[in-house]
Sequence to fold (387 residues):
Amino acid sequence: MNQLIYNFAVWLDTHTWSTQLHESFYMYNWVESTHVLALMVSLGMLFLIDLRMLGLALPGIPATTIAHRLNRPMFIGFSVMILTGLLLFYAIPVRSSQSLWFRIKVVLLVAAAVNAWLFHRRMKHASSNAAGNWDRAIKAPRRLQMGAALSLCFWVLIVICGRLIAYDWFDCRSEPSAIIATLAGCVADQTQF
Amino acid sequence: MSTGVLGSYTRSIAVALVIGLGLVFAFSDARIDTWFALLPIFEWMETTPFGVIGQTWGAAFAVVEAIHLLAMAVLGGSVLVSDGRLLSLVFTDVPLRQVQDACHRPFVWSLLLIILTGVFMACGVAIKIYYLDVFWYKMLALSVGVAFVFFVRRPLLRHDIEHLNPQVLRLVAVASLMIWFSVAATGRWIGYSG
Fold:
């Protein structure tokens, strides 16, 4: 599996556009800045929804109103974030695919996506429920609160991992321990880093 | 509207005066003298426990950086929602006052967290940022943002919002969005400079 990912990353790395994007000071920085600014939009909306469910923000506004109204700007932000994130990966494919932090981040992203799907299902269920008079309550039902808390935890960890990708503590070229090397996807006799 | 010797325009005149003084300061030797005078403070910042931790423990610096970013996300969210409401883009069926008041608390908490984590990060790279123009632009943008919120936006919105000119509300929202975008963008640019 690691060999396959490495081969794919090396193939991406052979693209002229990948090299040009990586070596263009302004373009790379613009993409990265857009990634961070889109994160502010998407996570800003998501955090407000989660904090509302936990009763920590916007208590006067009905919870489902917040969730429904902020969904669209949140998804626009997420779309830009994913697009720029893919471009950032495309610019430095080998190192990114072999970054332990990047790999943890991807796992957490999948977990956050599953949690978001479950959260929306629970919210729909709670809204259609006859006892769904929780909309104006300060806190959402317990299961929704758990989903919101999990979402907050996942995203805090995702941002921390994203930030740590910039550090080279566990890079394959630094010859890490066997476990780290396997988790990071280091390949024997690899020539590109 | 606060009234004083200058009538209902006291606050406007005070703001104009501050901007005027700021411009005089920016284009005079006083700015350079102040910049030189601040160097010992930045040198001292690197010797504080924050500075030592920031310089020697990369993981701590990275985690604080991430918290700074998360706080920026909350601040961005609250600014977008409250200004979006002023521009009639979101929550149009929720009273304007309710949205503004609801967004102010997360805004203040996230701003405090941004400043706290920002001070920590600044201590770790104090001398580097001292010589970066973009750092001073960010500080200027942040100061303008804070002054704008607490001396212009909040006092204005404390009045009977329904009777305020909608164009003024839109202008306030656009100005607010531009200021906070500048804060975020200049902050990001610090990472690429030096």
User: Anything to note?
Assistant: The two ends of chain B are 46 Å apart (CA to CA). Chain B has a mean pLDDT of 88. The CA atoms of residues 86 and 169 of chain B lie 6 Å apart. Residues 48-190 of chain B form one domain.
